[in-house]
Amino acid sequence: MYSIVKMMYLNEIPENKYDKLYKYAQKSYVGGSFLLHPDVLLYNAYKHSYREIGQYLALASLRPFADYITTGETTLDLTVCEVPVELFTENSLLRIEDNKVYFLYEEVNKKDIH
Fold first, then answer.
1. How far is it, in rounded angstroms, from Cα 85 to Cα 25?
2. How many domains does the chain have?
3. For the chain, which end, N or C, has fewer CB atoms within 10 Å of the first or last residue's CB respectively?
4. What's the pLDDT score for residue 86?
5. Within-domain flag for 56
6. How many CB atoms lie within 10 A of CB 51?
7. Which alpha helices (H) appear in 1-114, and where do they start and end?
8. Residue 2 φ then ψ, to 5°
């Protein structure tokens, strides 16, 4: 998991075909999902488990990019989420309020962005 994030956001490329990054270099990651501050997530990744980061990325991928463009909304409405809420209620990167999922590193202040 960390290898993909490292390659995509730190712009690292595989050194040779035996490098762990090599298998991810030929894949296309273009899609309709979005992360506003992947750099902040990567910077703070040591504070969270792979499971929490995986859940964070998976749920963020369910957010409609068109909604963000039109309204600036960075939350995920639980009515759109097809995953049982019980699976991610203990995640320190996510907060559930008012039938919406809030993402910790999507709400960072400008001064906290590295």
1. 33
2. 1
3. C
4. 87
5. yes
6. 12
7. 2-9, 22-25, 38-43, 50-60, 65-71
8. -60, -30
Q: Residues 9-17: what's their mean pLDDT?
A: 70
- pLDDT tens string 52-86: 998 999 899 888 877 787 888 899 999 888 788 88
Give dist(CA 84, CA 8) in Å, integer: 29
Q: Which domain holds residue 99?
A: 31-112
CB environment 98-108: b (16+ within 10 A), e (fewer) = eebbebbbbeb
- Dist. CA 34–CA 85, nearest whole Å: 21
Lowest mean pLDDT among 16-25, 32-41, 88-97: 16-25
pTM above 0.70, yes or no: no
Whether residue 43 lies inside any domain: the answer is: yes
Of 30, 33, 31, 44, the C-alpha closest to 74 is: 33
Write down the pLDDT at residue 107. 80
